[in-house]
Design goal:
The chain is mainly alpha-helical. The protein contains 5 helices and no strands. It binds zinc ion. Zinc ion binds next to helix 1 and helix 4.
Length: 82
């Protein structure tokens, strides 16, 4: 490990846990640091949070099992399409 800075590719495998707030505090801090300096990731995360808010509304906050897995697939598609 050469420092606290991580790449975009290192951010996205952790993002579901990051949003859930169950991520290791050190990793969480490193991701927040990355989002501060990376407009692209910050924008994508914004979109993901919007989708999650809509989904939570639709589900009355009762997210189905496996939601994290589907979220990761959506993210993979988003990043691929870029
Ligand atoms: Zn990034």
């Amino acid at each position: 490990v050469s420092g606290p800075e991580i790449s975009c590719l290192e951010v996205w495998p952790e993002i579901a846990d990051f949003i859930d707030g169950i991520l290791d505090p050190t990793l969480r801090w490193r991701i927040e640091l990355h989002l501060d300096g990376c407009e692209r990731c910050a924008a994508v995360l914004d979109g993901v949070r919007t989708v999650l808010a809509l989904a939570a509304d639709a589900q009355m906050f009762d997210l189905p099992t496996g939601f994290g897995v589907r979220l990761k697939r959506v993210l993979a598609r988003k990043l691929d399409a870029d």
